[in-house]
Amino acid sequence: MSSLQMRKKAVRILDKLYQLYTDAHCALRYDSPFQLLVATILSAQCTDVQVNKVTLGLFAKYPSVQDLAEADLYVLEGDIRSTGFYRNKAKSLLGCAQTLISQYNGQVPQTLSELVRLPGVGRKTANVVLGNVFGIPGMVVDTHVKRLSRRFAWTDQQDPVKIERDLCQLLPERHWVQASHLLIFHGRQLCKAPIPLCSQCPLLKECPQRGVDRAN
Fold it and tell me: Has 168 been labeled as part of a binding site?
């Protein structure tokens, strides 16, 4: 299959996903770029539902970047314990807030290169923030996006950075932000790991797997 044919097929799949998930969006709750940054850091190895429960109280307790930058590390660990890996996450949140105060006047930067220099922030977190609050296109590669993009034969890579590169080359830039949401929604609802619900999937005819059980 040529590159052009692959792109056309990928866009057909996206079109169907748009029809299936008309309300696909970022499930994390936030009112500011900083709140989304915090919530996304907490979402590593944790469900969005649980993160939203934790941030409800967390954002009330630390309403500003300055408030979080001045938090006691051990108290913060307790505040976020239920999200898992709370010690590392607490250090990241504290370091992130302190760096924003010292280097960015308390504002979340709007470039990938600056965001990934913040403690606890990788490309996935940076792209979540850039796409959802600043409207800057980026492909978010989480576990669902990784699994579905491999099942759709959009990539054969395992490394998230290489998958991100392949998806950005394959999909038109205008779809990057929403494509991540669509793949995440579909991954949660039907294209599950390890066994996808292929018999219920409207994309079955387009899918190279056609019911083959693969976890990745």
Answer: no
Residue 191 in marked binding region: yes
Question: Which residues, including other chains, have CB under 8 Å from residue 71's CB and lie 6 or more apart?
Answer: 62, 93, 94, 97
Three-state DSSP at 40 gives: helix
- Provide the whole-model pTM: 0.92
pLDDT at 3: 87
The list of the chain residues with pLDDT below 50 reads 213-216
The boundaries of every CATH 1.10.1670.10 domain in the chain are: 3-24+139-206
**pLDDT tens across 123-157, in order?**
999 999 999 999 999 999 999 999 999 999 999 99
Verify whether residue 142 is a known catalytic residue: yes
Q: Do 88 and 80 form a contact (C-beta atoms < 8 A)?
A: no
CATH topology of domain 3-24+139-206: Endonuclease Iii, domain 2 (1.10.1670)
Give the pLDDT confidence score for residue 108 in this predicted structure.
98
Handedness of CA 4, 10, 15, 18 (dihedral sign): negative
Catalytic: which of 89, 124, 146, 166? 124
207 is in an annotated binding site: yes
Identify the CATH assignment for 33-133 out of 3.40.50.300, 3.30.420.10, 1.10.340.30, 2.40.70.10.
1.10.340.30
Catalytic pick among 48, 53, 91, 142: 142
